[in-house]
Amino acid sequence: MRKINCSLTKPGSLGRAIEEIKKYRNELDQKTQLFVERLANIGVNIAMMTLATKGKGDSPKGADFAIKIDKNGNVVNGLITVSSESILFWEFGAGYKFNPGGSPNPKADEFGMGPGTYPGQTHVPDPGYWFYYEENGDSHMSYGTQATMPMYVASMEMIDNIYKVAKEVFRNG
Predict the structure, then answer these.
(1) Number of folded domains that form the chain
(2) How does pLDDT run along the chain (173 residues), one tens digit per residue?
């Protein structure tokens, strides 16, 4: 907390107080943006690590992550995006072998995602494998993909770190 003193009897005191308030508002805006950036970086790092190191399956693990920070008036928005042809398979799972009880992702039902939800799929109850064809006609055997939930895990890590990051960013001044 910051104290700003002002005397109504001293010339210029009110003007100095107004300037201090403006300075504090600018510092607060900068710290708010830093807070959002720090949380977003935590999220991206956890999502990348989860995608790279967890889960079984034959979906490609490559992905491009990006952070976009926008300020609109007093509101700072942070957005994490991931671009990957198979991110939904890693997030919600595909196939029975690695996801026998359905998707462990708590958001699966809300978003209508998980094993058995891919348009035109017919193999989710198969406990073994199936074949799929690429656009060039090559066939591939698949066991599906285990839901490792990189974005869900990242969001939970960000939530768990809100208080810690807020203390670090806002404690001074």
Answers:
(1) 1
(2) 678 888 778 888 888 888 888 888 888 889 999 999 999 999 999 999 999 999 998 888 889 999 999 998 888 999 999 999 899 999 999 888 888 888 999 999 999 998 878 777 776 666 677 777 888 999 888 888 999 999 999 999 999 999 999 999 998 65
pTM of the model: 0.81
b/e per residue 102-133 (b: at least 16 CB within 10 A): bbebeebeeeebbbbbbeeeebbeeeeebeee
Length of the chain (residues): 173
Residue 90: which domain range? Answer: 13-170
Residue 5: inside a domain, yes or no? no
Would residue 4 count as lying in a domain?
no
